[in-house]
Specification:
By secondary structure, this protein is an alpha/beta fold. It is built from 11 helices and 13 strands. It has helices at residues 11-22, 60-68, 82-87, 89-110, 146-167, 191-200, 220-231, 251-262, 273-277, 292-298, 306-317; strands spanning 2-6, 26-31, 50-54, 72-75, 114-119, 171-176, 179-180, 205-208, 214-216, 218-219, 239-243, 248-250, 268-271. Strand 1, helix 1 (11-22) and strand 2 form a beta-alpha-beta unit. Bound molecules: uridine-5'-diphosphate.
């Protein structure tokens, strides 16, 4: 098949492109290289099976042409990372809501199966973990910019599901929980690459808040495998599905693990949230996925533990050194 991956030069997108190429498909990447980077897909054009169009998912004519020539559409293009969302709220909202609307319209026009990468942020401040796909979203105030990301992604899900209901367009919405792995940049605030780089450089490891907030980290290879399985799973059409890992860890414990795994002499420093993010920020205290639906649909079980994940990222960050 010929498969369109919007955001294919991003961290997750580039891993997805590699998997699709391995599966024998031709891949068309639409990416404006804003938070993605050419380096992520460097060498893939040489295979003769991947081509890149550098443009935005808000360019209607380009999107139309890309969707028309593709058999399936993975829509990953999105503003990404809490840092960017706090600093550039207009860009966040417009790119997420506008871009998805444009891509979905074209998919509906040519009846191309559509997969949305959504986010565990959609659960908002929900405190009853693990989070099940049909649980309520508990959003914060609109004056707290962080929640604009969750609301924009929730609107994308509503729109995708609406196309399923009204036109039986095959869609699936995948809520990703803290995906990490090689090639992820810490530039937009992501904690694991930041901690690994800080520890390797012997710099202080910066824990925001008191460090008791928890996350569950998923290796990107588990994620992209699940994405391709869900795209091709008829029973997943019109559904929302969590993809993650249910091994929960506090951020303070993560800092300790990273320091131990790198053999670093770095200290841990605690930084108040307002110093880290300015105003407009409120953290999620716990975030754990319920994985039964993914398991029932595609037999999904995360295969990489946190220790495997850290070892892989450390190997990547120290490559050639
Ligand atoms: N965090 C941290 N130090 C950093 C970056 C992030 O303590 O240098 C915290 C952040 O406040 C959050 C958690 O790590 O509690 C995960 O942050 P990330 O931005 O990776 O993802 P999120 O789950 O917030 O989208």
């Amino acid at each position: 098949m010929k498969i369109l991956v919007t955001g294919g030069a991003g961290f997750i997108g580039s891993h997805l492109c590699r998997l699709l190429l391995q599966q024998g498909h031709d891949v068309l990447v639409l990416d404006d290289l804003s938070t993605g980077s050419y380096d992520n897909i460097d060498g893939l054009e040489d295979t003769g099976h991947l081509s890149l169009i550098v443009d935005s998912v808000n360019s209607r004519d380009i999107v139309d042409a890309c969707v028309r020539q593709s058999d399936q559409v993975y829509h990953l293009a999105s503003a990404v990372g809490v840092r960017l969302i706090i600093d550039q709220p207009v860009r966040t909202i417009e790119s997420i809501v506008g871009g998805t609307e444009t891509v979905l319209k074209a998919c509906a026009r040519y009846r191309r199966p559509f997969l949305l990468t959504s986010t565990s942020e959609v659960y908002g401040k929900g405190s009853r973990v693990p989070f099940h796909e049909d649980d309520d979203s508990v959003m914060g105030a609109t004056s707290t910019r962080r929640w604009s990301y969750a609301c924009a992604k929730a609107m994308d899900e509503f729109l995708a599901l609406a196309y399923w209901v009204e036109a039986r367009l095959p869609v699936v919405c995948c809520r990703l929980f803290n995906t990490v792995g090689p090639r992820q940049t810490g530039q937009y605030g992501m904690v694991v690459p930041r901690f690994v780089r800080q520890a390797l450089a012997g710099e202080p490891v910066t824990v925001y808040g008191d460090g008791t907030q928890t996350r569950c980290f998923t290796h990107v290879s588990d994620v992209v495998g699940a994405l391709t399985a869900l795209m091709n799973c008829k029973a997943a059409r019109g559904r929302v599905v969590n993809i993650g890992n249910d091994q929960e860890i506090s951020i303070l414990e993560l800092a300790r693990r990273v320091i131990a795994a790198t053999g670093s002499s770095s200290e841990i420093v605690r930084i108040p949230y307002d110093q880290a993010y300015g105003d407009g920020f409120e953290d999620m205290i716990r975030r754990v996925p319920a994985l039964e639906r993914a398991h029932d649909l595609i037999g999904y079980v995360p295969t990489r533990s946190l220790d495997d994940i850290l070892a892989d990222i450390i190997a990547w960050e120290t490559r050639g050194k």
